[in-house]
Amino acid sequence: MTKELRDKTCIVGVGNTQYGSFPETDSYGLGAEALRKALDDAGLSIRDIDGVIVNRIPSYERFAEMVGLGHQRFSLQLQAAGRMSGVSVMMAAAALHTGQADCIALVYGNNGRSVREYYGGGDGAWGPWGFTSPGARHAMMARRHMELYGTTSEQLGHIGKTIRDHAALNPDAVMRKPYTIEEHQASRYICEPLHLLDYCLINDGGVALIMTRADRAKDLKKTPVYVSGFARNDTYAMSSFYTPVDDLWYEGLQDIAARVYPAAGISRDEVDGLMIYDNFTPTVLFSLEGMGFCPRGEGGPFVAEGHLGLGQRWPTNTSGGHLSESYMQGWALIVEAVRQVRRECGSRQITNCNVVQYIAATPVSASILFRR
Amino acid sequence: MDYKKPIPALDNWNRPFWAAAREGALKMQGCKSCGHLFYPPGPVCPCCFSDVLEWRTLSGRGTVESWVVFHQAYYKGFSDELPYNVAMVRLEEGAYLFTNLVGIPNDKIRRGLPVEVIFEKATEEITIPKFRPAEPAEA
User: Fold this and answer.
1) Across the interface, do A141 and B65 touch by the CB < 8 Å criterion?
2) In chain A, what percentage of residues exceed pLDDT 70?
3) Domain ranges for chain B
4) Of the residues A61, A63, A172, A322, which has the maximum number of CB atoms within 10 A of its CB?
5) Mean pLDDT of chain A
6) Pairing between strand A204-213 and A9-16?
């Protein structure tokens, strides 16, 4: 991102449904509910929306028809993958800044739990060897990290435990009961070296954001949250192996770290909290190393020292994240970033929170700095 | 025909790989312009974009780069073998493969373990390349 986009657009409304099992509705219904809440939060009506970005809901066309969006100036549907949540915010910021729309609704709906979405199996290229599932891909990366640097499963457990401790403070989180490292270790293996508690939670839910330009945001109901800066790095080498094996996304994230802070005009020292895409615990480790929060290979001891907890230097995933709140593919983490910066988070509020950084280490890696 | 594991889907690019496996050879595409060896197969070299490619017969030797052990069955054909391993093998010519290691207990697998290819016949058409330790694993 060039500096031209710095602080030019804002998130002015956020909304989310409950997360759980809701077979009585579907991703369209969940998206509509989240959108209503986000509009209420912003003090806007659906008539104010002139652009829409739809994610995971099967048809943007049907969704827009269903909620009665009239003549839109901008609409876009992105692949139903978690990497696209941050990308959606970036696309909206660019579209708003260039005058393609004035007020964009970003809507995500996921009924993966009700339809028993199964992440694995099918006719993938590695099926003949039984290799399948996102969890296995991350297990393969985690094992390599362990072999190279001596990282342990207990250290990964610290990530899950800390995020669960945060979920205990979030009434919307699906899993709120704290656990110990011993309980993490005792949870069954799904794909070794990853245990059940290293995996995120598949649920039904909807999330929506309302974005507009900064000049229009000031008059709205809530404190505007600025999209201060962002950067992405799309790493496709080794995609067939799902793992950039030589670097565990390190190079791509280093590139982002070099660009995202200057883009926002914010230094890392000014960041108060982190929202890290935690589909699996090792992803948090790779994100911290790649973004330079700790030296390469030292993520294990770093997380075990407790830096990610509330009240510590880098409070991370204060909502409970994908691991304990719900797997909303980055969308709910962005909502939490907004609420933290607005200081609406009650007992899980980061003190004097001004800046929150979103980080997603995926084949399309991204980071966004949000500030008040 | 009682082979229950997934059978690879053959296409225009990977057919020579599977034809070679059936004959007991491990072959991959190499680029005649820049020399890059790569997998999975494709119409052009991902290193230099050349379309002048050849199929090369590899030594079948490599080392374990990483591995996992599945404790959950995603494929019915693998459910009897739980927990089963999948290893990422770095071939001595430089390319990678996901594969299964045979002839070694899962808890003896280590990064850097030297391995060599073997071929397991699945069906009349399909033979699956797997790997075994190239020297006795430590007891």
Assistant:
1) no
2) 99
3) 12-57, 59-139
4) A322
5) 96
6) antiparallel
Q: Are A111 and A30 contacting, i.e. CB atoms less than 8 angstroms apart?
A: yes
Using CA atoms, how far residue A323 sits from A284, B74, B120, in Å, is 11, 21, 39
Angstrom distance (rounded) from CA A180 to CA B3: 43
Mutate to test the interface with A, among B22, B29, B98, B131 (most CBs of A within 10 A): B98
Is-catalytic flag, A261? Answer: no
Q: Which residues of B touch A192 (CB under 8 A)?
A: 68-71, 83, 106
Six token digits for residue B115: 């391995």
pLDDT on residue A52: 98
Say what the pLDDT of residue B136 is: 60
- CB contacts under 8 A, B 2-41 vs A, are 5-9, 39-40
Give the model confidence (pLDDT) of A74-121 as tens digits. Answer: 999 999 999 999 999 999 999 999 999 999 999 999 998 988 877 888
> Is there a contact between B88 and A241 if contact means CB atoms under 8 Å apart?
yes
ipTM > 0.90, yes or no = yes
Which of helix, strand or coil describes residue A195?
strand
CATH topology of domain B59-139: OB fold (Dihydrolipoamide Acetyltransferase, E2P) (2.40.50)
Query: Which residues, other chains included, contact B105 with Cβ-Cβ below 8 Å and sequence gap of 6+?
Result: none
Would you list the domain boundaries of chain A?
3-115+201-371
Q: Is the pLDDT at B6 greater than 80, yes or no?
A: yes
DSSP SS3 for B60: coil
Residues 6+ apart with CB under 8 A from A258: none
Instruction: Give the span between the Cα atoms of A104 and A72, in whole angstroms.
Output: 10
DSSP state letters, A122-148: SS-TTGGGT--SHHHHHHHHHHHHHHH
User: What distance in Å separates residue A127's CA from the closest CA in chain B?
Assistant: 6
pLDDT in tens, B65-103: 999 999 999 999 999 999 999 999 999 999 999 999 999
A48: pLDDT confidence band, cut at 50, 70 and 90? very high
Which site among A131, A187, A241 would you substitute to test the B interface, given the most B Cβ atoms closer than 10 Å to its Cβ? A131
CATH assignment, A3-115+201-371: 3.40.47.10
Q: What's phi and psi for A47, nearest 5 deg?
A: -70, -20
Active-site residue (options: A28, A60, A226, A277): A277
Our answer to whether residue A189 is catalytic in this structure is no
- Looking at residue A43, its pLDDT comes to 97
- Pick the catalytic residue from A226, A242, A327, A358: A327
A68-77, A142-151, A184-193, A242-251: least confidently modelled range:
A242-251
pLDDT for res A1: 62
CA of A243 vs chain B CAs: smallest distance (Å):
10
